[in-house]
C-alpha cells in the first residue's frame, strides 16, 4: 500500500472544529486523515469519519495515528493502540507511527519497534512507521524490523527546512517521506519567491508549496478549518511546477526548524 500523496492533518483541531474539518474534507474528496493520540481528537475524528464516510468503503480511506511517548513500553503500546482504534471506530489503522522517539532513550528503540511490529502482525495496523526520527534512530529501527517494514518517517519539512541529509538517507533505505508543517505555520506563504511562482501559475502560495513537496515525492498532510482552503489545497495535486520553479524553491532552505520541543527532540541531523 502506498501512502496517499495528500491527506488531511488534524493537529491542534479539537471538538466540533475537527469534526467539521474532517467531514468537509471527506465530502470534498480527501481520503487520508492523519491524527495522533496526543492530539486528543481521535474520538471526534472517528465520529466524523463514521458519519461523513457512511457511503465510502473503509478500504478507500487511509487513517493514520501515532503512538505517544507515554505508551512506548512493550506492555502499553498495543493496549494504547486498541484504545485508539476504539475511539476511531475502526478495526485497524492503515498506518501507525511512533510519534517521537522515547525521551532520553528511556524506552529502547528495539522495545517499541518490536511492539509496533507485533501490532502489525496482529492486524491492528496495516503499515508501521516513525515520526521525528533522525538518521541514527532510523538505523536503529531498521535493525529491529528491517527497512522494508518502515513505511515512512513523518518529519518537519518545508521550503525553509528541506532536511536533505535525512531525506537522502531515507531514499537510500526505501523509506517514504511524509512532510508535516509543509506550509511552515504559514511563514512560507509570505515568501516573495513562493508568491511570484504562484502568480505565474495563477495558483495560491499554499498550492505551490504543497505541489513542490509532492513533486519531490513527499506525502503532505496540511490542515485547515475553512472549506475554501481545504478545496484549494486539494487542487495542488493538479499543479505542475517547472524545473526552474523547483530550483528557485530549493534555494530557500535556511535550516529553519519550527518544531523542536525540549523534552522530546532528538539530536537533529
TrEMBL record:
What EC class does the entry list?
oxidoreductase
- Note the Pfam families from the entry: Aldo_ket_red
**Gene Ontology process terms (BP):** methylglyoxal catabolic process
Q: Boundaries of each NADP-dependent oxidoreductase domain copy?
A: 6-252
Going by the UniProt record, its keywords in alphabetical order are: NADP, Oxidoreductase
Q: Where is the active site?
A: 39
Q: Which domain of life is it from?
A: Bacteria
Site (Lowers pKa of active site Tyr) at 66
Annotated substrate binding sites: 99
List GO molecular-function terms, semicolon-separated: methylglyoxal reductase (NADPH) (acetol producing) activity
Identify the EC number(s): 1.1.1.346
| CDD domains in alphabetical order | AKR_AKR3F2
SUPFAM superfamilies tied to this protein: NAD(P)-linked oxidoreductase
Reactions catalysed, semicolon-separated, are:
hydroxyacetone + NADP(+) = methylglyoxal + NADPH + H(+)
Q: Does the keyword Hydrolase apply?
A: no
Family (UniProt):
Belongs to the aldo/keto reductase family.
Name assigned to this protein: 2,5-diketo-D-gluconic acid reductase B
Question: Which lineage?
Answer: Bacteria, Pseudomonadati, Pseudomonadota, Gammaproteobacteria, Pseudomonadales
Amino acid at each position: 500500500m502506498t501512502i496517499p500523496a495528500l491527506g488531511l492533518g488534524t493537529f491542534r483541531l479539537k471538538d466540533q472544529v475537527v469534526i467539521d474539518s474532517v467531514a468537509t474534507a471527506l465530502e470534498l474528496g480527501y481520503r487520508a486523515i492523519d491524527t495522533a493520540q496526543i492530539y486528543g481528537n481521535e474520538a471526534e475524528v472517528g465520529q466524523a469519519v463514521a458519519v461523513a464516510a457512511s457511503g465510502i468503503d473503509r478500504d478507500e480511506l487511509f487513517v493514520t495515528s501515532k503512538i505517544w511517548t507515554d505508551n512506548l513500553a512493550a506492555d502499553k503500546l498495543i493496549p494504547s493502540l486498541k484504545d485508539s482504534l476504539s475511539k476511531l471506530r475502526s478495526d485497524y489503522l492503515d498506518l501507525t507511527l511512533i510519534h517521537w522517539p522515547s525521551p532520553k532513550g528511556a524506552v529502547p528503540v528495539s522495545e517499541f519497534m518490536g511492539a509496533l511490529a507485533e501490532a502489525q502482525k496482529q492486524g491492528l495496523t496495516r503499515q508501521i512507521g516513525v515520526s521525528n526520527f533522525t538518521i541514527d534512530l532510523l538505523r536503529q529501527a531498521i535493525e529491529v524490523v528491517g527497512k522494508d517494514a518502515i513505511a515512512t518517517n513523518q518529519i518537519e519539512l518545508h521550503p525553509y527546512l528541506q532536511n536533505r541529509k535525512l531525506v537522502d538517507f531515507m531514499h537510500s533505505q526505501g523509506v517514504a517521506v511524509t512532510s508535516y508543517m509543509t506550509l511552515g505555520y504559514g511563514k512560507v506563504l509570505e515568501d516573495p519567491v513562493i508568491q511570484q511562482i504562484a502568480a505565474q501559475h495563477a495558483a495560491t502560495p499554499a498550492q505551490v508549496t504543497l505541489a513542490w513537496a509532492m513533486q519531490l515525492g513527499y506525502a503532505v498532510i496540511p490542515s485547515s478549518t475553512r472549506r475554501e482552503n481545504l478545496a484549494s489545497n486539494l487542487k495542488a495535486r493538479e499543479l505542475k511546477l517547472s524545473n526552474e520553479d523547483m530550483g528557485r524553491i530549493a534555494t530557500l532552505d535556511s535550516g529553519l526548524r519550527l518544531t523542536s520541543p525540549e523534552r522530546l527532540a532528538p539530536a537533529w541531523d
